[in-house]
Amino acid sequence: MLRNKLETPLESATRATRTLIDLLGQDLPSYIWDDPFVLGFIYQAATAYAIQAGVAGDQLHYLSAMYLDLFEGDAEDILSRSAALHLSKDASFHHGSSNARRFIGAMGRTPASKDDATAIEANRQAQEAMLIADSSAPLTYNEALYIYLYDGLFASELRKRFPNLVERSG
After folding, report:
1. How far apart are the first and last CA of the chain?
2. Taking each helix axis from N to C terminus, what angle separates 59-71 and 75-88, rounded to the nearest 10 degrees?
3. Dist CA 105 CA 145 (whole Å)
4. What is the largest CA-CA distance in the chain?
5. 126: alpha, beta or left, given left = phi > 0 and alpha = psi -120 to 50?
6. Is the predicted pLDDT of residue 6 greater than 80, yes or no?
7. What is the pLDDT of residues 132-152, one digit of tens each?
8. Cα distances (angstroms) measured from residue 168 to each of 12, 28, 92, 147, 150
């Protein structure tokens, strides 16, 4: 995650999290924010981005501010559900959290990601994309890697959970 020098750490972390949400598309049905996997992925990614950006203070405080910006009127409800699922050790929530950690780790090229099959495949796909990239629409390696990791660790699971979303957008 790159931080714009004009942004505060909290703004930078919120922007990075918003990108994950925006990639889901416009006019999402509200039931997507009831899904434990989705909540776990976003909760963990928001936390990791805040830590990377250098946000200081209590986790609940900065997540509340981030969620208010991201979800507006639904922020308190979505954060409360996320926190409850986190504390209850819900398997789907923790699967989403684990995938977000893998996503962040692979983007940061942590040692743990070198053996991750999804990260290895995303790296291969990103390298292939660089070979066929059109110079009129340049795509950096990191952008390609982000897209393939996002698909492999988040979007692919959503396609299984919400096949009607794929039909809506297709």
Report:
1. 30
2. 130
3. 12
4. 49
5. alpha
6. no
7. 866 666 788 999 999 999 999
8. 31, 10, 24, 21, 20
